[in-house]
Amino acid sequence: QSVLTQPPSVSAAPGQKVTISCSGSSSNIGNNYVSWYQQLPGTAPKLLIYENNKRPSGIPDRFSGSKSGTSATLGITGLQTGDEADYYCGTWDSSLSANWVFGGGTKLTVL
Amino acid sequence: EVQLLESGGGLVQPGGSLRLSCAASGFTFSSYAMSWVRQAPGKGLEWVSAISGSGGSTYYADSVKGRFTISRDNSKNTLYLQMNSLRAEDTAVYYCAKSSAVVVAATDAHFDYWGQGTLVTVSS
C-alpha cells in the first residue's frame, strides 16, 4: 500500500493525450514539491518532471506536470509508442516517519 | 557526465548479510545527498534509505530500520548500504540515486540521476 495513490494503468492511442494522477496528503504533496519518474521496460527510472512542473534538459515539452493541494498530475500529449513505460510520482513526507515516498506506479499503454 | 555504478548484489540466505556499493563520478559527491531505492520483482519503487552530503544525517524506511545501515566515503566518492538480517521480502533490484540537494529533507529535492541497479536475492 503506497502512501501516494496512482491509477494502476492508463491507455490511449498514438497522438492522443493522457493524464496520470497522484494523490497524497498534507504531510507529503501538500507541503513539498513533486517529481515524476519514467521507467522504460528493463531500465532504471529516469527523472521526467521536478518541482511540480519543471522539465530537465532533454525532456520534450510533450510532458508536463501540475500540482493542486494534495494532488499532482502528469500530462503527456502527442503520445508515441516509445512512451510506453511505468510512471511514478514521488516526494518527501514530512510526517514523523520522515521519509521519501513514491506512488505505486502507473503503466501507460499506447494502443 | 554523472555516473552511478552499483555493485555487491547477489544471492544470500535468509538471515545473511550483504554490502552494496555505489561508485559515483561526474559531480562533487560530497555536495549531494544520496539514497537507495529498491524494486521487488514486478513491483513499484520503494525508497529504502538516504544520507546527507556530509554523512551526518541518515534516514531509513520502517521496513529496514535496525537492519540496514547507509554510509558514504566522500574521499572515495562511494555510497554504501550494509544489509543485515536479510529476509525474503528484501529481494529486489537496488538502485542508488543522487539527490538534487545536499540535505535529505529538502522540500524541493528530487532524484536527478539513478544507477543501473544491482539485484539482491534472498533465498535458501
- Rounded radius of gyration of chain B (Å): 14 Å
Task: Assign an overall shape of chain A.
Answer: globular
Biggest interface, CB < 8 A: A-B, 28 and 27 residues
What is the overall number of helices of chain A? 0
Low-confidence runs of at least 5 consecutive residues of chain B: none
Q: Which percent range fits the helix content of chain B?
A: under 10%
Which word captures the global form of chain B? globular
Q: Between the first and last Cα atoms of chain A, what is the distance in angstroms?
A: 28 Å
Write down the oligomeric state. Answer: heterodimer
Q: Unreliable stretches of chain A, pLDDT < 50, 5 or more residues?
A: none
Encode the helix/strand succession of chain A as letters. EEEEEEEEE
Average predicted confidence as pLDDT of chain B: 96
Number of strands of chain A: 9
Distance between the termini of chain B: 40 Å
Quick check: average pLDDT of chain A?
Answer: 95
Number of helices of chain B: 0
Please give the largest β-sheet of chain B: 7 strands, mixed
Strand content of chain A: 35-45%
What's the number of extended β-strand segments of chain B?
Answer: 11
Structure description:
- The complex is a heterodimer of chains A (111) and B (124).
- Chain A has 111 residues and is an all-beta fold.
- Helix content of chain A is 0%, strand content 44%.
- In chain A, strands 1, 3, 4, 7, 8 and 9 form a six-stranded mixed beta sheet that branches.
- The model of chain A has no long low-confidence stretch (mean pLDDT 95).
- Chain B is built from no helices and eleven strands.
- In chain B, strands 2, 4, 5, 6, 9, 10 and 11 form a seven-stranded mixed beta sheet that branches.
- Chain B starts with a strand and ends with a strand.
- The model of chain B has no long low-confidence stretch (mean pLDDT 96).
- Chains A and B meet through strand 3, strand 7 and strand 8 of A and strand 5 and strand 10 of B.
